[in-house]
Amino acid sequence: MDPVTHALSGFVLGKTITKNKKILVIILISTLLPDIDILLRLHSRELFLMYHRGITHGVGALFIFPILTALLFHKKLGFFKTYFASFLAYALHILLDFTNQYGVKILSPLDWNYYSLSLAFVVDPYVLFPLLFALLLSFKLKNQAKVLYIVSMIFIVIYMGTKAYLKAEARDLLKQKIEAHQYRVYPLVNDFLRWWFVAKHSDEYITGFVDLFTKKVYFDERYKIKNEPAILKSKESKSVKVFLSFAKHPVAETKHEGDVTVVLWRELSYGFLPNDRFTVKVWLKDSPQGYKILNSNLRI
């Protein structure tokens, strides 16, 4: 989820379980702390994509970071009270990130695979606005503030449960409409009844939309899975290696710009986003000795 949603969720959680302002501050900090790995972006996009939502979003960090927080504040607030508050906030952050498509490397550093429920988009108004409304209304209805916070959290739980049901329905409809070996559906921005899909059949990927309102499947593109020499060579690029460690449905295409071959890698689970998000371009020069990588560019 986005930082604003995480901050609001931490505030609502804190105001629900405590009146202690110091504990509330600890909860707010712990809710935002897992995203400290965003600093990796200052080094490179490759490093950020490789480790974002990795160690700081893993089970190990969930237990270790609250210990550090508790050690810092145990004299003023007590070790176990501080640890419990920090643990809840840290877990809430990981749980919210787990619901969206990007997912988390929850088992890192032992397992660097992403795990995700793929129920909500990274910025989801149906999660953000209930928390925001509860906060704003609490300034007027101070006596009912805790009730407002609890209601907002219940709404989000019901929302996620509804999205899980609709996702299953979208996948079932997709399986009825097209023949494939693999079916995946992903949430769209601010949409309940339309889902983006990626299906794999033989040597190609099929993408499009599942519309639960019209009960129809709309095709977007078909991508052949190719293993041309230029594509194989592009895999030696650091950008492509990182990209492939992240991508669930990677596919590559080649084109020529003068005497230069360009390989474009796409992550199809984000194929509905504009501006070639989550793609890698690799420029190669052909020679008698084979292809040589000239440059690469990762977009996230």
Quick take:
This protein is α+β, with helices and mostly antiparallel strands and 300 residues long. The protein is 46% helix and 21% strand. Helix 1 packs antiparallel against helix 2 and helix 1 crosses helix 6.
Account of the protein in words:
The chain has 300 residues and is an alpha+beta fold. It has three domains: 3-117, no CATH class; 163-223; 226-299, Nuclear Transport Factor 2, Chain: A (Roll). The chain has helices at residues 3-17, 21-32, 45-51, 59-77, 79-99, 125-140, 145-177, 229-234, 238-246; strands at 182-187, 194-201, 204-211, 216-224, 250-257, 260-267, 279-285, 292-299. Strands 1-2-3-4 form a four-stranded antiparallel sheet. The longest helix is centred in the middle third of the chain and has 33 residues, at 145-177.
The count of strands amounts to 8
Number of helices: 9
N- and C-termini, Cα separation:
16 Å
Helix/strand structural class: alpha+beta
Q: SSE string, helix = H, strand = E?
A: HHHHHHHEEEEHHEEEE
Gross morphology is: globular
The average pLDDT is 94
Strand content: 15-25%
Low-confidence stretches: none
Largest sheet: 4 strands, antiparallel
> What is the rounded Rg?
22 Å
What strand line-up does the widest sheet have?
1-2-3-4
Provide the domain count: 3
Helicity, in percent?
A: 40-55%
